[in-house]
Amino acid sequence: MAQMPGQFTITREIWTFWATESVASSTSYYGKVERRPAWFSIEYDLYTQDLGYVGFAKESLCFPWQSCDFDVFDCDGSLLYEAKLAELQSVGSSGSELAFEFKSADGSYLGRTSQLEGEGIQLGGLKTQETMSIVDTGDEEVAVMQHDTSQWIAMNWQVQVNMPELNGFANTVSAPLSDPRIVVIFAALRFRGTGVFSPAISCILLVLLVIGLIFGIRRFRRWRREREGPGWFFDDYVGGSYNEPERGGLLNNACCSGNRGKH
Questions:
Q1: Mind listing the pLDDT tens digit for each residue in 148-161?
Q2: Does the N terminus or the C terminus of the chain have fewer Cβ atoms within 10 A?
Q3: Is the pTM here over 0.70, yes or no?
């Protein structure tokens, strides 16, 4: 497994077809996370520059503005890690907090995240948490993620990794949190509510949908006129059929043929 850079930026791409986040350090490109639709879920495929496709994550069902449980798999589809939302003991206080708990496929505890915030719809759009961290089994901070607070919608996250295992080689067996399939994919998951298409493609598809809807309405109106005839427009106002005015009334009952003869 290719090592993660000690410091990297994960950036949301604009012009790719599928929603994609690129991963690069200040000196080199590392890889990308690509979202693909799956059965009732979304898969997050991880590609590295050196090895290509190395694994994927799959989320459980939840609302777009919420964090979801997810599982991480290798490229053969074997389960590697599980990330579950849970109320955990707070790292910085005596209370509890909502956080992700990381476990290996055999159920052994690997680490956790800091408190999750902004799990609902906020005024002004989807609130994206400004800072996140991952701690190991000894509650030592091994990764910190943050984004530019001036961004209304987060387009990139800066990640600082502090893992001794990255100095030399990444032994993902003895130190699973050094596996980029946890840290990099988790950073990509912070772009919540972005769907499966990139921003540019999403805009294009939306415009095409609106054009198709307008065209469909115009075609339906033309078909309706041809089918119902010229009086169809008035049918809605007279109960569905056009009727002649009823005979009767003052004019119809009166004698309008002139004066009567005198007797």
A1: 877 777 888 999 99
A2: C
A3: yes
Topology of domain 7-196, per CATH?
Tubby Protein; Chain A (3.20.90)
Residue 164 phi, psi dihedral angles, 5° rounding: -60, -25
For the chain, give every domain's residue range.
Answer: 7-196, 200-239
CB 102, CB 95: distance < 8 Å: no
**Residue 7 and residue 159 in contact, taking contact as beta carbons nearer than 8 Å:** yes
End-to-end CA distance of the chain: 123
Q: Is 262 left (phi over 0), alpha (psi -120 to 50) or beta?
A: beta
Pairwise CA distance, residues 31 & 22, whole Å: 6
**Are 49 and 42 in contact, with CB atoms under 8 Å apart?**
no
pLDDT tens, residue by residue, 77-127: 999 999 999 888 887 677 888 899 999 999 999 999 988 876 666 555 556
Contact 1, 170 (CB under 8 A): yes
